[in-house]
């Protein structure tokens, strides 16, 4: 078994082929958003709730030292842009695979926005990171969206499917996409790429049942799980809601069963 497969097992440790990712990389793009002020506390309840993996920027990796108990898989995020700059959707690399290994990460993640003016550079960077991941045996999570001046408006399910295929073609080991509206498109995406695909949790949603039903639909369509951030760390009961998502993904709870505490 190669190093990449061993590291991937740290994210899929339950053996069911599914996972719940807890992305916490929002601080670079959005600043000190509500719910992420004390990141070590967020990481602690994320671990207690059963997240299979977290996504962090390099400077926040040190927060893991304050977390007790076994850690989940750790992706160090290599992409950055800010809302304060002139090109929010144009992500640039701010780290390397070698640095991530030195900081103790199990994998790396890269963000690509298809349809932005900077798309060619982001694809080039994805290729560079993918080559280094292959060389070092490091899992690569590709977060890929359709955003920017040249993106269709509204973004179609077909465009999302195209984005997923791009990530699969260019070497992703795990793909994160926004959830298509049509379950048949979800099924086609799951069939058309050779690696697991997780759906993004999306913008903050007030109704827990809506989020959970969306995740359940994705699982039934063949997606491998969910990457959920704001809808957990900005929830009134973040640890409890993350536990509910874990129960839905790994324990077969229905959306109604998982949402019961808040109904």
UniProtKB/TrEMBL annotation:
* SUPFAM superfamilies assigned to the protein according to its UniProt record, in alphabetical order: Aldolase
Pfam annotation, one family: DeoC
Q: Which GO terms describe its molecular function?
A: fructose-bisphosphate aldolase activity
| UniProt cross-references to InterPro entries, sorted A to Z | Aldolase_TIM (IPR013785), DeoC/FbaB/LacD_aldolase (IPR002915), DeoC/FbaB_aldolase (IPR050456), FbaB-like (IPR041720)
Q: Which domain of life is it from?
A: Bacteria
Q: Which CDD domains match?
A: DhnA
The entry's active site is 145, 176
Q: Which Gene3D superfamilies match?
A: Aldolase class I
Q: Which PANTHER family match?
A: 3-HYDROXY-5-PHOSPHONOOXYPENTANE-2,4-DIONE THIOLASE (PTHR47916:SF1), FRUCTOSE-BISPHOSPHATE ALDOLASE CLASS 1 (PTHR47916)
Name of the protein described by the UniProt record: Fructose-bisphosphate aldolase, class I
């Amino acid at each position: 078994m190669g190093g990449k497969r061993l590291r991937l097992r740290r994210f899929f440790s339950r053996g069911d082929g599914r996972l719940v990712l807890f992305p916490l990389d929002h601080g670079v793009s959005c600043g000190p958003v509500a719910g992420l002020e004390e990141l070590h506390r967020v990481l602690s309840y994320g671990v207690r709730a059963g997240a299979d993996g977290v996504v962090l920027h390099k400077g926040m990796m040190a927060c893991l030292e304050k977390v007790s108990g076994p850690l989940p898989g750790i992706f160090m995020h290599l992409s950055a842009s800010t809302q304060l700059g002139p090109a929010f959707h144009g992500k640039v690399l701010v780290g390397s695979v070698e640095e991530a290994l030195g900081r103790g990460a199990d994998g790396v993640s890269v963000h690509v926005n298809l349809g932005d003016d900077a798309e060619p550079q982001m694809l080039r960077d994805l290729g560079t990171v993918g080559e280094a991941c292959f060389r070092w045996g490091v899992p690569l999570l590709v977060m890929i969206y359709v955003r920017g001046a040249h993106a269709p408006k509204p973004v179609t399910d077909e465009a999302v499917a195209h984005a997923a295929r791009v990530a699969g073609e260019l070497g992703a080991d795990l793909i994160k996409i926004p959830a298509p509206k049509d379950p048949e498109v979800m099924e086609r995406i799951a069939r058309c790429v050779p690696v697991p695909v997780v759906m993004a949790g999306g913008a903050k949603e007030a109704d827990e049942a809506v989020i959970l039903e969306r995740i359940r639909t994705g699982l039934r369509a063949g997606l491998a799980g969910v990457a959920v951030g704001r809808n957990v760390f900005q929830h009134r009961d973040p640890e409890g809601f993350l536990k509910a998502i874990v129960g839905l993904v790994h324990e077969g709870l229905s959306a109604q069963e998982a949402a019961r505490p808040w109904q």
